[in-house]
Write a structure and sequence with these properties.
By secondary structure, the protein is mostly helical. The chain has one domain. It has 13 helices and 2 strands. Strand 1 and strand 2 form a beta hairpin. The longest helix has 27 residues.
Length: 325
């Protein structure tokens, strides 16, 4: 447990130091964010803010695992890291395309979806073949599980992983929101790993929790840097991969409640718009923009959404009491 807490502290320090080194580089590369025309008009003053700031917590978390490598006995955490890095690389390609062509849209939706499905399939196959994951589906609160056919499980898991990663990505729309909401999720996964005796697996979420706290120093409103798709897809990769590494993917319904709400707000908005021939259910989607349009300050949105995320993570803890109790 001491090693896990120390790793979180090291992750925090490394992320802060890397941020100090990274920001001048991003400014020199003119890696500025372009603001979408359909977004809130007051976000236009954020144009030019450096993006790809997610690199600071990505490298910090990866370095923490390297530092801990000599004392590790279970290397499952590197499957999680590999998946997250793969998703982060897809995000990097998207960000790089935006920067190179000075536009808000990077890779096409189809390109991202195909790459994400391929990465998910490779991760699941590797985990299954290595014995680090089986095809039992654990049901929170009921403390029971049932066996799925491997093919059915893999298709289910691919759907969950791609959906989860993109849901986390949608949450990155207000200064500090995605990082703040994800911190309680990382604390949950670190605590669950420790309670289940998987101390080495706890190192990545612990390191990332600390790294995200330091990242908020640069990303709190008004943000000095944005994580970009590089960071948000990496975070989504860690969230979904940890749920499968701990063999409790359905727990994402609880710990990922805010992400799900963000995604559902977009789906409902688009569906309602089409069904009613132009009427809107929300003032703007994702839902954090709706609250902005209602007059909420960015800080209030972040604190409220983070509180909801924390409460849902506590509820999720009771949901897996049969595994951690």
């Amino acid at each position: 447990m001491t090693k896990v807490l120390l790793t979180a502290l090291i992750g925090c320090v490394l992320s802060w130091v890397l941020g100090r080194l990274l920001l001048p580089v991003l400014h020199a590369l003119k890696a500025g964010q372009s603001i979408r025309e359909i977004g809130p008009t007051w976000h236009n003053n954020k144009a030019g803010t450096p993006m790809m700031g997610g690199l600071m917590f990505i490298f910090a978390a990866a370095l923490c695992l390297v530092i801990n490598l000599p004392g590790m006995e279970d290397y499952t955490v590197f499957f999680v890291l590999a998946l997250a890095l793969s998703f982060g690389f897809i995000g990097f390609l998207d960000d790089f395309t935006k920067i190179k062509f000075h536009r808000n849209l990077g890779l096409t939706s189809m390109q991202k979806a195909m790459l994400q499905m391929a990465v998910s399939a490779l991760f699941l196959y590797a985990m299954y073949k290595s014995g680090a994951m089986d095809t039992h589906l654990y049901i929170p609160f009921l403390n029971t599980s049932f066996l799925l056919h491997p093919i059915v499980y893999i298709f289910f898991a691919m759907f969950v992983m791609v959906g989860c990663v993109n849901a986390v990505n949608l949450t990155d729309g207000v200064d500090g929101l995605s990082a703040s909401v994800t911190i309680p999720v990382m604390v949950f996964f670190a605590a669950a790993s420790v309670a289940m005796g998987k101390y080495d697996l706890a190192l990545l979420p612990a390191a990332l929790a600390g790294a995200l706290i330091a990242y908020l120093y640069y990303n709190w409103h008004p943000a000095k840097v944005f994580m970009g798709d590089t960071g948000s897809l990496f975070l989504g990769g860690v969230v979904c991969a940890m749920s499968f590494a701990l063999e409790m993917p359905l727990i994402l319904i609880l710990v990922g409640f805010v992400y799900i709400c963000e995604t559902m707000s977009v789906i409902l908005q688009v569906s309602y718009f089409k069904l009613t021939h132009g009427k809107r259910l929300f003032k703007m989607s994702p839902i954090h923009h709706h609250f902005e349009m209602c007059g909420w300050k960015e800080e209030k949105i972040v604190l409220t959404f983070t509180a909801v995320s924390a409460v849902m993570c506590v509820l999720a803890w009771f949901g897996i009491s049969g595994l951690v109790g």
